[in-house]
Amino acid sequence: MNDALTWTDALALQQPQIDRTHQEFVELLNTLAAAVQPQPGAGALPAFDALLAHTEQHFAMEEGWMAATGFTPENCHSRQHQMVLELMREVRSCAIDNGEWEPLARLVPALAEWFPQHAEMMDAALVFTMQQLGFDPAQPHAVAAPSGAVAGCGSCAT
């Protein structure tokens, strides 16, 4: 079985904490990909649950950074996080409640396609904003106040 997604330098955003988190996402996605082959079923649930828990924490970390750097709660980056989590939870519910495991298998390539685009656009804009403001995730309270809230998908420079 080939990996669903391969971590490469092209996915790196040069922000150590987010790059480490993104590498973990790729590893967990590949673990799930292996678990749903050749036939998805209940045996894949631990791998899926690990990916879901990681993704919840991953997105919460980014949401905290967005709040600290002036993104409005309804910005499109946050909305995308919400949509992905809703989909993952719905897929889990279909599997557990209805015994429908095929959506879980179909989710793997969908996430593998979505993730690089999300990182390149949404997460890169967040990292750019953090850099522009001098925001250090290790010291999240030491940040210059942004000049205006970020409501769209871009950084504070757009």
Give a written overview of the molecule.
This protein is mainly α. It has a domain at 25-35 and 43-133. 63% of the residues lie in helices and 0% in strands. It contains four helices and no strands. Helix 1 (16-35) packs antiparallel against helix 4 (102-133) and helix 2 packs parallel to helix 4 (102-133). The longest helix is centred in the C-terminal third of the chain and has 32 residues, at 102-133. It starts with 15 loop residues before the first helix and ends in a 25-residue tail after the last helix. It holds the Pfam family Hemerythrin. One of its GO terms (molecular function) is oxygen carrier activity. Residues 17-125 form the Hemerythrin-like domain.
Provide key terms for this protein.
mainly alpha, 4 helices, 158 residues, single chain
Structural class, from helix and strand content?
mainly alpha
Number of helices: 4
Radius of gyration: 17 Å
E-strand count: 0
Residue share in helix: 55-70%
Overall pLDDT level: 90
Q: How would you spell out the order of helices and strands?
A: HHHH
Low-confidence segments? none
Largest sheet: none
Outline: elongated
Beta-strand fraction estimate: under 5%
First-last Cα distance? 42 Å
Keywords: Iron, Metal-binding, Oxygen transport, Transport
Family: Belongs to the hemerythrin family.
Protein name: Hemerythrin domain-containing protein
GO molecular function: metal ion binding; oxygen carrier activity
